[in-house]
Amino acid sequence: MIIDLTHTLKTGISVYPDSPEPVFTESATFEQQGWSEIHISMCTHVGTHIDAPSHMIPGAKSLDKFELDKFIGSAMVINCSGLPEITKNFLSEYEKQITSVDFVLFYTGWQHKWSTPEYLSFFPTLTCEAAQWLAVFNLKGIGFDNLSVDAIGNEQPNHITFLEEEILIIENLTNLDMLIGKKFELTCLPLKIENSDGSPVRAFANIPLPLMR
Amino acid sequence: MIIDLTHTLKTGISVYPDSPEPVFTESATFEQQGWSEIHISMCTHVGTHIDAPSHMIPGAKSLDKFELDKFIGSAMVINCSGLPEITKNFLSEYEKQITSVDFVLFYTGWQHKWSTPEYLSFFPTLTCEAAQWLAVFNLKGIGFDNLSVDAIGNEQPNHITFLEEEILIIENLTNLDMLIGKKFELTCLPLKIENSDGSPVRAFANIPLPLMR
Question: Looking at residue B211, what is its pLDDT?
């Protein structure tokens, strides 16, 4: 079964404070050109997207420099709904499972607030201690159904912690509630933009069907 | 083994005649904001991309309205290098194989001319008869390592033939030469843009065909 984990890109979606909204305009119409075409104006960190190391660390690896299998792997979702923050103590209960996957995704419930003003406030993030603990695992990436791995502000310590280890950060995922307690394959494909510090993605979960008897 | 079938998006790549080139500009820098971010300005049919039915047919289905499994499936490459055009007679030799796949991709050799002036000229396309013959198969999509399923011009008969059947058209693929004679799984993910008539994609081949999906 395939589950789409991607928010639809359109005007009016939640964006990081002070970031420009994406704009989609008709660049060709049936009436004028005989076909339909849209022009896209957006930043690399809009919608469901990946942060590359080069987003936060000068000289670090950009997204186009990773092999494609960096964006595909086994994954799990940790249910963090109701938590004010995600602590090392809470995560340590999942240590064995985290060891066995390529991606750890966090369900906080914020996916349901997408494109409302509430999406930008009070979303739970990892404590710095939890981020440092998690960054030691051999992960391809981590992901969230909310805006950021750090609280909004000038300091981005958790971004640095993960990106220094080349652990990709996926933000603004959705439908994570459908994957709690399941092991699945995550495919999270960015555009292949030269020297890109990030990219909107199309992300999906593939839950293997039970083996035929 | 995973093979990337996507051209890198950057300034100076081949675009359809009279279409605007994609533009990538720095919207944040380490010096000014403390992080790096790119702003993207491009049309939906830039680089390696999919055409949706709504690109050519008023009121037809846009790309965001398809289930995700429309973009994933078994695939084959037909070697058309050296042919001036792709005829029904030539294709009919592959009839049995075409029946067993979701996607048929065509290698014409034009991938090697990408981003040169030669890319825009004399690329082989399907004859109308071949397109009509192929559109009867139960395909999810067809794809090419060149610019278009029709010759450049106002008339787009092959686009209409396939899009009326909701057979997606993938253009500007690369690395198809590596897949001749192989059966593989194609994953070709567009962005999820509301009402989109097309989208740049990230496309890859997975050899051999995974056993479970």
Answer: 53
